[in-house]
Amino acid sequence: MIKTFQLIKDTRQNVLKLLSEGNTERLFNIPEPFNNHIFWNAAHLMATHQLLLYTFSNSKERLNQEFIKKYTKGTTPDQKFYEEDLEFVITHLIPSFEESITDFQDGYFGEYKPLQTSFGSTINSVEEAFQYIVLHEAMHFGQMKMIEKLLI
C-alpha cells in the first residue's frame, strides 16, 4: 500500500501545483469539446475519493455532503469562479488524502460494498479502492493538462 499511497500523493501534488499556478480564468474555463474545467476535475478527485473509500465502506465521510454532491460523477460545472471552493480544495487536497491513510491504518473503514466502476472493473475492498484511485486521479490529472494546453 505504501507505493499506492505515494502515487496518489504525487498526483495530488501535481494537481495542487496546477491549481496554484493557474489564473482564475484558466481554472474555471470550459473549452470545447470538454464539459468541465480544471478546477472541477480537482474538486471531483476529492469527492470521488470520499465516495470510494468512505461511502462504499459504510463509513462516515470526512468532507461535507454538499461538496461531495456538487463535484460527484455526472455533475457539470458552470464557468463561475467559486473562490470558497477553490480555497477549500487548495487547502484540503493533500490533508484529506492523508486523513484517509490515517483512517485506513486505524481500521476506521467498515465492510466494503462491491462497486462496478465505469472502467468495467469491480472494487471489492478499501485496498482495491485506493488502487483504483491511482488510476482515477491520474486520468483526471491528464484531462486537466489537456484542458490547460487548450487554454494557453
Description:
The chain is 63% helix and 3% strand. The chain has 152 residues and is mainly alpha-helical. A two-stranded antiparallel ribbon has the order 1-2. A hairpin with a 5-residue loop joins strand 1 and strand 2 (122-123). Helix 3 (38-53) runs parallel beside helix 5 (83-105). The mean pLDDT is 95.
Low-confidence runs of at least 5 consecutive residues: none
Summing up helix and strand content along with how strands pair, one would put the structural category as mainly alpha
Largest sheet: 2 strands, antiparallel
N-C termini distance:
37 Å
The chain-level mean pLDDT equals 95
* Strands, count: 2
What are the main properties of this structure?
single chain; 152 residues; mainly alpha; two-stranded antiparallel sheet; 2 strands; 63% helix; 3% strand; globular
SSE blueprint and pairings:
Blueprint: H1 2-21, H2 24-27, H3 38-53, H4 65-71, H5 83-105, E1 115-116, E2 122-123, H6 126-151
Antiparallel strand pairs: 1-2
Helix pairs in contact: 1-5, 1-6, 3-4, 3-5, 3-6
Give a short summary of the structure:
With about 150 residues, this protein is mainly alpha-helical. Helix content is about 65%, strand content about 5%. The model has no long low-confidence stretch (mean pLDDT about 95).
